[in-house]
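Q: Could you fold this chain for me?
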Amino acid sequence: MKPKITICIPSHNNENVIADAIKSCLIQEYPLKEILVCDDASNDSTVLVARTFPEVRLIINNVNIGIGENLVKLMEEAQGKYVVYLCADDIFTHPKVLTDIVNQFDKGNQDIGVIGRFGYYFYHGYKGAIGVLRDKNILTQSCCPSGMAFRRDDNIFATNKIFIEMPYIVEQYLRRWRWTMFEYDTVAFRYHPGGNTGTKKSYYQGSCWQNWVDLTGNNNWKDYPSFIMLKNRAPHKLWEEICLAVKINKNCLKDASFWFYSLISIIVPSWILKKLSNFYRLRILRGRFKVIERGNNV
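A: Sure. Below is the predicted structure, expressed as structure tokens.
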């Protein structure tokens, strides 16, 4: 008998996009699947939209428990032997994604507990990729939860520290399991300002930089473009994060990209930087990235 797989959808105020996510689950060809939505105390119509799909099992948190806690709650509530995450604003790109995941777990090495994937970013309402996720480091690529697949485990702990909610889960798996990766775009990550968690000012409590270093011990992390993100979303934290980057790794002072992103984020006013960022995505980046299709060798 084929094993069941649960699609775990964490949601919070996703009324305009969650239907697309659920529809991309429904077209998955794998027959024994569960679609599980855990809504984290939305104050919009997300729950009402989810209820229009009879195939969805819906759990509602009466109070907001945070992203990391919600990810773990979904795994605990899942009825499948395997779980795959899909954020409520993202979509699967191919109807055989679940089939590939189950086949990898069942027919591949039995000591594999985590499956990563490639993906691409698109801007809500526009066609064409504005970026791609091609990172082959399982920890760094898991910062985007969608498409990450696991053998279900009830002994996983959660963190709500920003940026590492999913990497924290992956790190626990890596203590006991091996990992592998699909090198085709299994998911498309939707970018919609004001809708993504990462575009909300309330998300920026604590330090992305420090959390990453504490989790991985990697002092050479070079996510300097995050300075622009901070300027646009949480400008009060920008200088603190720049100083922290220097404190953790003074070699960044020798890196031209550090100075470029630092100076741009400090000098350019937020209202201009936001317009420049959107112009760059929609007029320069959009459509310039090659989407990797699912091949016959998967």
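A (continued): Strands lie at 5-11, 33-40, 56-61, 82-85, 91-92, 112-123, 129-133, 149-151, 178-191.
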